[in-house]
Design brief:
Helix content: 55-70%
Number of helices: 11
Number of strands: 0
Structural class: mainly alpha
Strand content: under 5%
Shape: globular
Radius of gyration: 19 Å
Distance between the termini: 41 Å
Number of domains: 1
Length: about 180
């Protein structure tokens, strides 16, 4: 005979407090084994680190907090430098004009909407560098048309959340050896 079926309630009731603590951390996005720690650290580093963000990024809730306070122009410039984009190229994929960005001082803060989009692009950058294990290879990949994106470049999809999600999904497939 097979094992008796367990419903979700019985699994929760029989869980040890340590397992519950691990679930709570994962629910908050904190340090999921392997990926999250490197990913969150990578996002922070792409934008200039704790010094520029004025906060240590330990979980995804920290990213929400940073976005709501607004990223500085310095974080934007670090991302542009990392991606080897001009400020105009990066502004073209953000909901803000290049001219508006030029008027900002280095320590001026972007709106939460713009900051959130910058963080999404930084996540793509961190994940891509992690997957390709080389920033140069990732930058090259971003500029080449991809069949799974209807022969569009990954870089051209950065304008929307849906495009960012598509890029992250494709990077996940590449990471696991599933090519489309």
């Amino acid at each position: 005979m097979g094992k008796p079926k367990r419903d979700a309630d019985s699994v929760i009731r029989t869980s040890r407090p340590v397992a519950k603590a691990k679930r709570d951390k994962r629910a908050a996005g904190a340090l999921v084994p392997g990926r999250a720690k490197a990913g969150l650290f990578g996002i922070s580093e792409v934008l200039g680190g704790e010094k520029v963000l004025h906060k240590r990024i330990e979980n995804r809730l920290d990213l929400i907090e940073v976005a709501s306070k607004g990223l500085t122009k310095l974080a934007f410039l670090n991302l542009a430098k990392f991606l080897q984009f001009s400020t105009k190229q990066l502004a073209d994929v953000l909901p803000i004009t290049d001219r508006t960005i030029q008027r900002y001082g280095e320590k001026a803060h972007f709106s939460p909407v713009v900051s959130d989009h910058i963080l999404q692009i930084a996540e793509v950058s961190a994940k891509g560098t992690e997957v390709f294990k080389d920033k140069g290879k990732f930058i090259l990949w971003m500029s080449h048309p991809c069949v799974s994106f209807a022969n569009k470049t990954p870089k051209s999809l950065l304008k929307s959340k849906f495009g960012v999600d598509m890029i992250l999904d494709e990077l996940g497939r590449i990471e696991h050896g599933v090519f489309s």
